[in-house]
Amino acid sequence: MDEPVHAAAGTRRWRRLGKRNSAAVFALVGVGLVAAAVAVPAFETILFVWGGTALFVALLLRFVTTGATVRATAATDVYATFAGNARRLAGTGPQRYVPDGDAVSLVVGEADGQTTFAPVVGEADGQTTFAPVGERLTAAVPGPATDAAPGDRLAVLVDALVNDLELVESATARTTESGAEVTVTDSYVGTAELFDHPVASVLGVGLARALDAPVTVESTAEGDRLVVTCRWDS
After folding, report:
1. From residue 6, how far is each of 3, 11, 13, 132 by CA, in Å?
2. Which pTM was predicted?
3. pLDDT at 17 over 80
4. Are residues 46 and 155 in the same domain?
5. Which of 117, 130, 157, 187 is 20–30 Å from 215 (CA)?
């Protein structure tokens, strides 16, 4: 009988040192340089500058490197697997983000001669509904004012995609008569699968909640760009 095997793994040493100790190292260097400036008046100006710079870097590292991150490739693989399974269940019908009180559901497919929507997870009237990825992602995005125009809400969502959620490198948006078009560059979640893509989902959920109306979303990948077209009833 084979001997039992025990395995263990830890963070790579260079990552562990970089994440946990870089701030402390820079802080110690900064304090040492400031102390040297006091002890050696002839070089106090340059030593104070170097010491202040090191302390500033230590402060930045303390607040920037506060936790572990998930690699973009891993996030993409997880998303693509679940999205592919959902697409096989739902088919290739139009994707609508439909508000229902405080919640928003992703409704896929055409209703059987109906124009109303039933935003509950499951199947009904020729449609399949899901809880969208954007429902949780937009939880921390500031809500719209009661009289906010669609363009104002769109600007908040685009800024959140880049700066708060950090899903894309950059994004531009423009409104149309009854919709909007958003173009993002370098999405950190891959775009080979576009069913309820996180970027599109954030836009669909955010706009549907702000407008209190269904928002149809179509996504297309164009090289390193993702183009998301949103349409709603005027």
Report:
1. 10, 17, 21, 40
2. 0.70
3. no
4. no
5. 187
Supply 53's token pair.
């710079």
pLDDT tens, residue by residue, 23-42 = 777 778 778 878 887 777 87
Residues 142 and 224 in one domain: yes
- Of 44, 64, 84, the last residue of a domain is 64
Residue 6 forms part of a structural domain: no
110-166 pLDDT, tens digit per residue, is 765 443 444 445 555 568 899 999 999 998 787 655 566 888 889 999 999 999 888
Task: Tell me the torsion sign for CA atoms 167, 168, 173, 178.
Answer: negative
45 and 106 part of one domain: no
**Count of positions (residues) in the chain:** 234
Measure Cα distances from 65 to 49, 59, 160, 185, 186 in Å: 24, 10, 20, 25, 22
* Tokens of residue 52, six digits: 């202040």
C-alpha 121/C-alpha 46 separation (Å) is: 65
